[in-house]
Design a protein that fits this description.
The complex is a heterodimer of chains A (197) and B (83). Chain A is an all-alpha fold and 197 residues long. Chain A is 63% helix and 0% strand. Classes of the chains: A mainly alpha (197), B mainly alpha (83).
Chain lengths: 197, 83
């Protein structure tokens, strides 16, 4: 078992729970699951865009955590570690479904054509209660390949650093930046088309 | 010394790479000055930020049943209070 040490990222109560869980305390393990359940489910939904799949991914993610908690070193936040695991399960699910249909997303998404005005009929604050808008956001992001989707979600939506995103995705920092650039440009352009309709 | 005028593409490329990072660097200050006078770039900058905000504001939560199934799947039922 790795000895975990306090770091600037993990608060003391979580660190205590991790130590207890590593010693076989199942109640501490259950508390850790409860602490991170919403984050993992929400993230899985943001990638899968389907509640049933998000639940499956969440279950597999926490099963991985239960099996591997003794190997957690505490060098990164537990949440960052969980983002890595949940991202991998999302990718595995997507690959197993062989959903790599012809996508409207093009590898050569060019920025030069995308500087256009955007006067959208919705604002970001409209999302919570607006089903039509949610459907549009789902429809648009589903066109983005999962690996690009995950980079966008980790970096921009969940707020991980570029380095943390690179580690979670096992990519180089330039590769993360490149994917992020393309993902943002693609989503912004697709929303530009849809939200003007 | 002749100063090269920054282009819209350079601005946007830089924003895309460095959004939320080191906003007080000389390059970033130059970008901000450009944005103040360029409607096209500031519009683009706003729409990228809005795109991110749309997805940030779209959140879901697991139901109580979903939570119970999870704890059952992990064989951790009855070890904590409910959600």
């Amino acid at each position: 078992m790795n000895e975990i040490t306090s770091n600037k990222f993990t608060n003391n109560s979580e660190l205590e729970l991790i130590k207890r869980a590593q010693q076989g305390d199942r109640k501490a393990l259950a508390e850790l699951v409860k602490l991170h359940e919403r984050t993992v489910y929400n993230f899985a939904f943001k990638i899968c865009r389907d509640r049933e799949k998000a639940e499956h991914v969440m279950q597999e993610t926490f099963l991985s955590m239960v099996k591997s908690i003794s190997q957690f070193s505490g060098k990164s936040k537990l949440s960052t570690w969980l983002y890595t695991v949940v991202s991998n399960h999302c990718l595995m699910l997507a690959r197993s479904e062989k959903k790599r249909e012809a996508s409207e997303f093009e590898e050569e998404t060019s920025f030069s054509n995308s500087i256009t005005s955007s006067d959208w009929k919705y604002t970001p604050g409209d999302v919570a209660e607006n089903n039509e808008l949610r459907e549009t956001l789902d429809e648009v992001i589903k066109k983005l390949p999962e690996d690009y989707r995950i980079v966008f979600m980790l970096r921009d939506v969940e707020g991980l650093s570029t380095k943390e995103t690179a580690e979670a995705m096992n990519l180089s920092i330039p590769a993360v930046k490149s994917r992020l650039h393309r993902a943002r440009a693609f989503l912004r352009d697709e929303l530009n088309k849809k939200l003007k309709e | 010394m002749k100063i090269k005028k920054i282009t819209c593409k350079e601005v946007a490329d830089y924003i895309c790479e460095t959004l939320a990072e080191d906003i007080n660097s000389p390059h970033c200050i130059e970008i901000k000055e450009h944005l103040e006078h360029c409607d096209v770039c500031s519009g683009y900058f706003k729409s990228v930020n809005d795109t991110i905000a749309f997805y940030k504001n779209y959140n879901v939560e697991p139901t109580d049943e979903c939570h119970e199934r999870l704890m059952n799947y992990l064989n951790l039922d009855n070890l904590t209070n409910k959600k």
